[in-house]
Amino acid sequence: MTDLLTALAYGAAYCVVGTLVLIGSWKVLDLLTPGRLGEHLRTSHSAALVAATWMVAQGLIVFTAIWTNADSAFGTALAWTVAFSLVGVLLQALAWRLVDAVTPGTLGEEVTIPGAVAPLAAVSAGVIVAVSLVVVASIA
Q1: Is there a contact between 50 and 128 (Cβ–Cβ < 8 Å)?
Q2: Is 104 left (phi over 0), alpha (psi -120 to 50) or beta?
Q3: Taking CA 112 as the corner, what is the angle to CA 111 and CA 115, rounded to the nearest 5 degrees?
């Protein structure tokens, strides 16, 4: 029974850390887009695609860090989770800035235009996934 309670406590701690990472990651994406990202989700399919991809990609990094370090001591596994999650958020933001630098206009404005998914939003979503996969590969 003690093992079960310990595992549940670890699971709860990972959930708290993962949730905090996702909140922080959302805030970073919100800073990269004009206005409030949540408001753009009402009208922009591009914003929805990019935001969903961003969150799933970050969640994949958190998951992989936990999964690959589960056999380590709890503190070590939690540290890996936090460290790689932060690296993931930073690299996703950097990738966003790089895509913004090599494309016309402003990426944040482009992905928040109301209506159907813009081609640049689809490219951005692909870049977000690619960055997260590189981070995931570096964890293992």
Answers
A1: yes
A2: beta
A3: 95
The tokens of 2 are what?
Answer: 């003690």
Taking the C-alpha atoms of residue 34 and residue 112, their distance in angstroms, rounded to an integer, is 8
pTM to 2 decimal places: 0.90
Q: What is the rounded CA–CA span in Å between residue 20 and residue 48?
A: 21
In sequence order, the β-bridge partners of residue 115 are 44
pLDDT tens sequence for the chain (140 residues):
778 898 899 889 999 999 999 999 999 999 999 999 999 999 999 999 999 999 999 999 999 999 998 788 888 889 999 999 999 999 999 999 999 999 998 999 999 999 999 999 999 999 999 999 999 999 97
Instruction: Write down the H helix ranges in the chain.
Output: 2-32, 37-40, 45-68, 74-102, 107-110, 119-139
